[in-house]
Amino acid sequence: MPVRVFETMGTTVSLRSRLAVADDAIAAVVAVFAAHDHRYSLYRPQSELSSIASGRLALIDASDELRITYAAALEWRNRTGGAFTPHRPDGVIDLSGTVKAAAMRDAGEVLALAGVDDWCLNVGGDVLVSGRPDPGHPWVVGIVDPADRRMLLTSVSVSGPRTACATSGSAERGDHIWTRGATPSPFVQVTVVANDIEVADVLATAVIAGGETTLDLVTRSFDIDVLTVDRVGELRATPGLREAIEGSGALAA
Amino acid sequence: MRTRAALGSLFGSIAVLVIGWQAGAAAAHNAGATTSTSSSSTSSGSSKTFTGTTAQTQFGPVQVKITVAGGKLTDVVAVQLTNDGGRSVQISNYAAPILRKEALAAQSASITTVGGATYTSDGYRTSLQSALDQAGLK
């Protein structure tokens, strides 16, 4: 199956597709990620968001796109009871919690416009799919074991309206999640399967940050499936996630 | 070829772990189940329902009921205990315990991508995703 791999946003993108994707469509996907990275990266001193962080640019003078993205991130903070936040502990606006997902969604729209139907986009372990790898099977995502990243915990199928699968954790880059309290999260890894990649990504991060209170809140109020791994390695799954596990393999029968 | 061999050994290791977990998983199951509230027979054999210990959650006290048939977990239902007369209501989207053994046993051999907490470009190089990509590039 064709695979295209490139680096962006400090991580690696793998785009798998049933049929080969034309070079100009790939270039358009790469450009989508580059544009988001240039505007929002705090690692790039010249990015618009870095200019706001340093005080060179006032928020009111920022681009409409940046202010809309920030407003959406604040809305996520409200909808998660504050578990998700677009602010670093030092107060700097950090939109990395939503921007990668936004770039993935835009990349998906670029692929759709290019007439590419069946693809699986993996960006740093978060996954967005369209269609199927072949007519008889759904896309299947293996979920890494946070205790040993050479191993898998399980696999989940993503099909139908469930096109997005995001995983947050403290195993790698755990420091990019800002927790509210001093108490460490009871979860070392949280996977959310949803109909939208931003929903999946934000809520996975929120549950890591907010613990069981947030887990109960978001499973009750959002249309999502969740798999958590706690500090002693035990798993919890919502009914839909359990079905996604069973739907991933024929071995269950 | 080297990549395929690495993936082969990965799934081989998982098979070994499945066996390793079975003993421990059975013990964990028993520890969580306080009472066997009912058992019934079906045409394919007997199924039993176990009720787990009560956990305090945002929903209030919650118990998880599991059904086991033929040694296989067939159903998990979360029940919220209400205060009025001991009535209970089912919670539709509660994250209930799931055994590692069960999660592993159900997984597919035809994984097309690997999900995990965000990795850097450096982390990617040693990731399962990287191995899968190299296999796919052949």
Tell me what the structure shows:
The complex is a heterodimer of chains A (253) and B (138). With 253 residues, chain A is α+β, with helices and mostly antiparallel strands. Chain A has helices at residues 23-40, 48-54, 64-79, 96-113, 197-221, 239-248, and strands spanning 3-8, 11-17, 119-123, 126-130, 139-145, 148-158, 164-169, 187-194, 225-230, 235-237. Mean pLDDT of chain A is 91; it is low at 171-176. By secondary structure, chain B is an alpha+beta fold. Chain B contains four helices and eight strands, in the order H-E-E-E-E-E-E-E-H-E-H-H. In chain B, strands 1, 2, 3, 4, 5 and 6 form a six-stranded antiparallel β-sheet that branches. The longest helix of chain B has 31 residues, at 2-32. Chain B is elongated and about 55 Å long. Residues 1-44 of chain B have low confidence and may be disordered. Chains A and B meet through strand 1, strand 2, strand 5, strand 6 and strand 7 of A and helix 1, strand 7, helix 2, strand 8 and helix 3 of B. Strand 10 (235-237) of chain A pairs antiparallel with strand 7 of chain B.
Largest protein interface, residues of each chain: A-B, 75 and 48 residues
Radius of gyration of chain A from the CA trace? 18 Å
Element order of chain B: H for helix, E for strand: HEEEEEEEHEHH
**Strand-and-helix sequence of chain A, N→C?**
EEHHHHEEEEEEHEEH
The helix/strand class of chain B is alpha+beta
N-C termini distance of chain B: 9 Å
Q: What is the strand arrangement across the widest sheet of chain A? A: 1-2-3-4-7-8-9-10
How would you sum up the global shape of chain A? globular
Strand composition percent of chain B = 35-45%
| Major sheet of chain B | 6 strands, antiparallel
Low-confidence stretches of chain A: 171-176
